[in-house]
Amino acid sequence: MPSARINGIDLYYEIHGSGPLLYLISGLGGSARFWEPNLAALARNHTVVLHDQRGTDRSERPETPYSVELLADDVLALMDHLGHTRARFVGHSTGGAICQVLATNTPERVDSMVLYASWPATDTHFRWCFQFRRAVLDGAGPEAYCHGNILFMYPPWYVQENAAVLEIEARNAALMAHPYAVVTARIDAILAFDWIERLSAVDTPTLILCAADDILTPPYQSRRLANAIASSRIEVLETGGHSCSRVVPEPFNALVSEFFATAQAASTAALR
Fold it and tell me: Given CA atoms 6, 35, 190, 170 in this order, what sign does their dihedral have?
């Protein structure tokens, strides 16, 4: 798959399927691989664009200051490179924060969006979670950090039933968790994110999606988003943790597909 020179770095991206443009934007891990359980279903009716964010996986890893706004600028530059003026978006966690920036600063580029397991501003619970994860990285190293991430990402029953696969996932993630300065700079970027006062200006059709057993961005964070964005609706899945798109992909894919179809129908009706 190709890479593009985006904002001074080499950015890896993929394109799959056909239909309306849909950008899938990953969370803190930043890798396009996160969406593997969802790609086939969503690419049936969309041209799906995925990328590895700067500092992650197959993209370049500059040891420079990071911010959510910078990651959003990378998405816009990738859209420009590909000749895409407007698209649908699904953003997971940090990807949801990126979508908030896009919908606020460049609403003409965002047709509709799904904010999945995301948050509008850092609070005490969020800060404590990431301070703990950073302490594990500093004190016990990348392998312990990535094993700990599994506990934040997936519900207990899923870890128990999929331990062997998740063990491999954690080890592979540990191999990619470098340079240290990049990992910590990305953590610092999300801890600095505070967008809640700007969300009242967003009128993009928005689905806010989370799982009831997400311990990293619990449902109250999604309710904060829903309360701030007037054009939104919220759906809470019974289980799935912070990675419900991977844990329960069928209901996740169905909700996302239904939302985009409904948003398109409403937009078409408004033009008549």
Answer: negative
d(C-alpha 5, C-alpha 9), whole Å: 5
Query: Domain with 220 in it: what CATH number?
Result: 3.40.50.1820
Any domain includes 78: yes
Q: Quick check: is 142 in a domain?
A: no
Does residue 138 fall inside a structural domain?
no
Nearby residues of 87 by Cβ (< 8 Å), 6 or more positions away: 20, 21, 22, 23, 49, 79, 109, 110, 111
Global confidence as pTM: 0.97
Q: Nearest Cα to 97, choosing from 199, 12, 183?
A: 199
pLDDT of res. 235: 98
For residue 33, what are the domain limits? 3-122+194-271
| Amino acid letter, residue 169 | E
**What is the per-residue burial (b if ≥16 Cβ within 10 Å, else e) of 65-78?**
ebbbbbbbbbbbbb
Residue 238 amino acid letter:
E
At 53, is the pLDDT very low, low, confident or very high (cuts 50, 70, 90)? very high
Distances (CA, A) of 177 to 170, 174, 182, 204: 10, 5, 9, 34
Tens digits of residue pLDDT in 246-262 = 999 999 999 999 999 99
The count of structural domains within the chain is 1
